[in-house]
Every structure is written in structure tokens, then in C-alpha cells.
Design a protein that fits this description.
Order of helices and strands of chain A: EEEEEEHHEEEEHHEEH
Shape of chain B: globular
Number of helices of chain B: 6
Number of strands of chain B: 13
Low-confidence stretches of chain A: 1-7
Structural class of chain A: alpha+beta
Strand content of chain A: 25-35%
Helix content of chain A: 25-40%
Number of helices of chain A: 5
Strand content of chain B: 15-25%
Structural class of chain B: alpha+beta
Shape of chain A: elongated
Distance between the termini of chain A: 51 Å
Oligomer: heterodimer
Largest sheet of chain A: 5 strands, antiparallel
Radius of gyration of chain B: 22 Å
Mean pLDDT of chain A: 91
Mean pLDDT of chain B: 86
Chain lengths: 237, 275
């Protein structure tokens, strides 16, 4: 992809994915869809976009799969050495700043937006958003990827501080599911990772178990089941 | 501690063919072993001449004015991502050392990097421990050199900066653009502020404004920007710097006015309209 100097600088690159990170009272919840696309084809319908950096810090990756993977590999490597030197778990802030360093220094070549989330004993649960360009912003919640366009209004309305763990996770699942409904580049299953003082929990919400939104229908095995149901004929002339 | 770092030679054979080399530099700066300036100089080896970046997350106007006791500066807290107003709590006014206040518009990641450079500058200044400290004029000059030199390498820091402060009773207010254009004045602005705020300031600014008059004047400008700048958000901060020190206000919002007769039914009587 050539970077044409006359390109419209007001049009941000769209990134196939929906990723979310929210803080709650006690930790953070990270969430993502599972679709990896190559153009119009879905290369992987069950990818895992929530990647571990350390025991207590995970990231959500969006944008170029290759770029986000390589950044996460380097940061994991540095954090590992840092942890050995430090003698205790790395803080979320350090992890986020390492991601920023790579994203910023290589801004002309990378195309990846990352959400860093985790828990440490100094600051508790924290979320850092690192969009294209390498800006770092600590936020109570962060959304990213092409699917996030559909979630700004949703979060503006629904967000509140100090949710419980279950409220936070339900919010994340609902949000990713809403984005999947409208964004062609997002789909598949919803994965969540909850990080708090106790540890890390991974959850999996398969596509067929997500709520139905406007204009979506319940799934059936076959038309025949509908036809054979006790109620009226759906076929008409 | 051994950390691997890969450096690419800037003089890249075959660069004339126009192929892009993709060898990102990975030098995690755990200690200050590499000066930040050279670090960025080694990066982005996309062939010989094409290096200008694009802004991604941007801040809009900053306005600064001199007043009786020092400098007043205002900026909203928006971080736009193209046409989306993506972030609404970005602090674009920051303290620099004892005597200066920096406001930035443009790419936020570059502003964050500038703050790191300034941090190092102030640190070294303090380490001299000679009772002297960099004033706003010196910081302004440092920023000018930094912006201009990056521009000459076709790798700009994509910001327009406003630098203000007071030292030894002297008030100073200046600005620097991403290409290194710099000047001082009694009132300065960046971006849309140049077109919307400065005409107001040219009419209404005067020597020795009180704090209240200054704030009201800045708010008049910011309100106008809110009406007319698509990337403005209604959450702003006003900062004040005087000989005694610096304060940055809490974020707050301005009332806006829509109740004009002419706004109620603007198309009444127009060709093609209903009445």
C-alpha cells in the first residue's frame, strides 16, 4: 500500500476488528471479535485478538495482523527482561509505554491500534489506548478497530464508572456483539479476558449465543423444522 | 543488560529504484543511552526522500494572550481522528519547568514526544544546580530549533505550539509552527484560532488586562471556535502563568447561544420553501 502524499489526511485507515477495554471496580475487562479478513475473504473466523504480554497485562490488537503481532512479540520480550531485572511483575503503565515506543518510533511503517489492559498492585486495573501514530492515552474505557465506529454513541449513553465485574463483562459482550451486527470486518465469536488481583479469566461467547438485534432472526437447523411446526404455513403465493 | 537493536544505513543502495525498505528500528530506551534526537533520525528508512508523515490523532486551536500578571492560554480537550471526535479528555496545555507553559495543536503523539524532550531539557538544566533556570524565551528557541531541523529532514513533528511564561518580571508569549516559523506577540493562536480568534483579539486586546477580562476574552474566542470549528469540543481548560507560578483550570464547558430570531425560520419566504 503506497502512502501517497496527496492522500486525504482527514480519512483515517479503517481497521478490520472490534476491540474494547473497560475498567471496573477491581480490575479490567478486555473484549474482541474473532474475524481476520484478507480483503473480502475471512481468513480466520475464530482468531484470538486478545494477547498476553505478562501474567497481569494483556493487549487487544487491531489493524494489520502482522504488525500487531510483531509489536506484541517485541513488547513481551522486553517485558520479560524487565520483569527479571525489576524482580516483580511489570506495571501496566510500563507495558503500555513500551507499546507506545514501538508504535511511535515506527509510525510510518506500522498500521496497528492497540488497547493495553491489566492489573498491578500500585494502580489497580488500568486501560491504555494506543491508536495509529503512537499517542498514548489512559482511559476509563477504550474502543478500537473498524467496528468501534458503531459504538461511540452506545458507550456515550451506557458508560458508568465503578461497575461490578459482571456488569462490565456483560457490557463488553453486548458492545462487541452490536458492532459485529453492523461492521462487515468484525464477526465470529466474542472473546473476553478479565484481569484483577485474583488473576486472569478467559471467556468465550460463540456467535450463535449472542443476543439478536434489529432485523436479525433466530437461527434454525432447517426450513423444514419451521414448516413442520404446529403453527401456520409460512409459505404463500 | 543486552537488548538487540537493528539499525539501517540511511544511504540505502537501490533507493533510487523507489523500493521501500521495511526495517523498523527497535531500540527500547530503558536508560538514556541514545539521545532521543538520533533515535528518531535513524528511523523511517522508506527510501531516500519520502518521509513526511500524516497526522492521526489531532488537537485543534490553542490561543494565548498576555495580561497584566502574565500569560493566559486556552485550549479545548478534543483529540480528533480524522472527522471523528475520538477523545474528549486530552490535556493540551502543559507546564514546562518553573517558568513556562506549552500548548499544542496537531498530532498528539508528537506533542507527547516533545514533552519527553522538554523533560530531558529541564532535567539537565536542573542538574547544573547553578541557580539558573531556563525561561520561556529559551524554551521557545529550543522548540524552534527542534521543529525547524525536523522540517529540514522532511520528518516534521506535526504540531503548532504556543509557548508562554514569565521570568524576572518579563512576560513572554511566542508560537512555533511545524515548519519552524516562529514569532512572538501579545496574542498568538494556532490553526483555526488564527482565523477566528486573532481578529477578535486585534480589536479587543489591550495592555494590562485583568485576569477576569483576559478569561472573558479567551472564552469569547473559544465560544466562536466552538461554533465554527468542526473539530472543536465543548470541554476546555484555561491556564494562567505568572511570576508566582502556573495553574491549569479544571475542565469545564461553555454555554452556547442559539436563540436568535433569524435562526428560528430562516427559509421563510425563500424560493422553494413551504411558506
Amino acid at each position: 500500500m503506497d502512502h501517497d502524499a496527496t492522500a486525504d489526511v482527514n480519512a483515517p485507515h479503517s481497521m478490520g476488528t472490534t476491540i474494547i477495554g473497560v475498567t471496573y471496580n477491581g480490575g479490567v475487562v478486555l473484549g474482541a471479535d474473532s474475524r481476520t479478513s484478507t480483503g473480502m475473504y475471512v481468513a480466520n473466523r475464530a482468531s484470538d485478538k486478545i494477547t498476553q504480554l505478562t501474567d497481569n497485562v494483556y493487549i487487544c490488537r487491531s489493524g494489520s495482523a502482522a504488525d500487531s503481532q510483531i509489536v506484541s512479540d517485541y513488547v513481551r520480550y522486553f517485558l520479560h527482561q524487565h520483569t527479571i531485572q525489576l524482580g516483580q511483575p511489570a506495571t501496566v503503565k510500563v507495558a503500555a509505554n513500551l507499546v507506545r515506543l514501538l508504535s511511535y518510533s515506527n509510525k510510518n511503517m506500522l498500521q496497528t491500534g492497540i488497547i493495553v489492559g491489566g492489573w498491578d498492585k500500585y494502580e489497580g486495573g488500568k486501560i491504555y489506548g494506543i491508536p495509529l501514530g503512537g499517542t498514548i492515552l489512559e482511559q476509563p474505557f477504550a474502543i478500537g478497530g473498524s467496528g468501534s465506529s458503531y459504538l461511540y454513541g452506545f458507550f456515550d449513553q451506557v458508560w458508568k464508572d465503578n461497575m461490578t465485574k459482571d456488569e462490565a463483562e456483560q457490557l463488553v459482550v453486548k458492545a462487541v456483539s452490536l458492532a459485529i451486527a453492523r461492521d462487515g470486518a468484525s464477526g465470529g465469536v466474542v472473546r473476553t479476558v478479565i484481569i484483577n488481583e485474583e488473576g486472569v479469566t478467559r471467556n468465550f461467547y460463540p456467535g450463535d449465543k449472542l443476543p439478536l438485534w434489529h432485523d436479525e432472526l433466530e437461527a434454525h437447523d432447517s426450513l423444514l423444522d419451521i414448516l413442520n411446526a404446529s403453527n401456520p404455513e409460512p409459505m404463500s403465493t | 543488560m543486552v537488548v538487540e537493536s537493528h539499525e539501517t544505513d540511511g544511504e540505502f543502495a537501490g533507493g533510487g529504484l523507489g523500493h521501500t525498505s521495511r526495517s523498523p528500528i527497535v531500540t527500547p530506551v530503558f536508560t538514556d543511552m541514545v539521545s532521543s534526537q538520533t533515535e528518531s533520525g535513524l528511523l523511517s528508512s522508506e527510501g531516500e526522500s519520502q518521509r513526511t508523515q500524516y497526522p492521526y490523532v489531532t488537537g485543534t486551536s490553542v490561543i494565548g494572550i498576555k495580561y497584566k500578571d502574565g500569560i493566559l492560554m486556552a485550549a479545548d480537550m478534543g483529540g480528533s481522528y480524522g472527522s471523528t471526535i475520538r477523545y474528549k479528555s486530552v490535556e493540551r496545555l502543559k507546564q514546562v519547568g518553573k517558568h513556562s507553559l506549552l500548548g499544542a495543536s496537531g498530532e498528539i503523539s508528537d506533542f507527547q514526544e516533545i514533552l519527553r524532550y522538554l523533560d530531558e531539557l529541564i532535567l539537565h538544566d536542573n542538574m547544573w544546580d547553578d541557580g539558573n533556570s531556563l525561561g520561556p524565551k529559551e524554551v521557545h528557541n529550543y522548540l524552534t530549533r527542534m521543529m525547524y531541523n525536523r522540517r529540514n529532514k522532511f520528518d516534521p513533528l506535526w504540531n503548532s505550539l504556543v509557548l508562554g511564561g514569565v521570568k524576572n518580571g518579563h512576560k513572554y508569549l511566542g508560537s512555533v509552527s511545524m515548519i519552524g516559523v516562529h514569532f512572538e506577540d501579545n496574542h498568538v493562536a494556532t490553526g483555526f484560532g488564527n482565523h477566528l480568534a486573532r481578529p477578535i483579539l486585534r480589536e479587543e486586546w489591550k495592555e494590562d488586562l485583568s485576569f477576569e477580562e483576559g478569561v472573558k476574552l479567551l472564552e469569547k474566542c473559544m465560544r466562536n471556535l466552538l461554533y465554527r470549528d468542526r473539530s472543536a469540543v465543548n470541554k476546555l481548560q484555561i491556564a494562567k502563568i505568572t511570576e508566582d507560578g502556573l495553574t491549569i483550570s479544571q475542565p469545564y464547558s461553555l454555554k452556547t447561544f442559539w436563540n436568535f430570531g433569524a435562526f428560528q425560520n430562516p427559509t421563510v419566504g425563500a424560493e422553494g420553501s413551504c411558506c
